[in-house]
Amino acid sequence: MLQLRTALLLVNSTLQNVQKLLTLMRSMTLFMKWQETKLVTEKLLLAS
Length: 48
Prior knowledge:
96% of the residues lie in helices and 0% in strands. With 48 residues, it is mainly α. The longest helix is centred in the middle third of the chain and has 46 residues, at 2-47. The radius of gyration is 21 Å and the shape is rod-shaped.
């Protein structure tokens, strides 16, 4: 029973880490898209 509890705690911890990484990845993707849009906008403003 103790081994099962330990395994479940490990799985839970792993799932929490995966969730954190997915959240980080999503926010970084949004940031990269925003940064790309910002650079394009700056180039357009400088060209005019």
